[in-house]
Amino acid sequence: MSAFPARLVSLSSLLAALVLYAGPASAETVTLNCPGTMAVNYSPGMTNTPRFMTISGTGVFGPCVGLPLGIISADYSGVAQGTTSCLTSSTTANLTLKWNDGTVSTLSLTQTLNTRPTGQVVSVYAGTVTAGRFQGAIATATLTLAQTDLLGCFTEEGVTATAGPAVFTIVSLL
């Protein structure tokens, strides 16, 4: 057997082995829109004076619409940090979505838009899925969180909690 056919057979065997043993692909097409509700706590409380704070939140999202079809809901938990007040906010968030099929996505988001009429929180966050299912996908979150203590912004303790509707969108087209 000459050297050329032997090399061709070796190369073919190597390619076949790579195809057979490469393992699952890490990326998948995703176009999900998941409405839901969330509740957040502010520490220290949110006042009219901007200050650094930690914001922790939880929520439930679904029914999700889009692809993949088996994803219909998610539980949310996360933490945001940054300078915040009843009038303005600049935060980054790290959060986890645990999907109904048991898989998990970790997201890193930055606040891109916010308005705070009378202490209500209306914000848009954008970023990416940094780990887990849908890694590399683009992620956005839109929040409209109401607080019932309208004078809380004027107190020393401040507003310590808000809650309301939110929507997560995750997109990655292969």
TrEMBL record:
Keywords: Signal. Residues 1-27 form the signal peptide. It comes from the Bacteria. This is Lipoprotein. It comes from Myxococcus fulvus. The lineage of its organism: Bacteria, Pseudomonadati, Myxococcota, Myxococcia, Myxococcales.
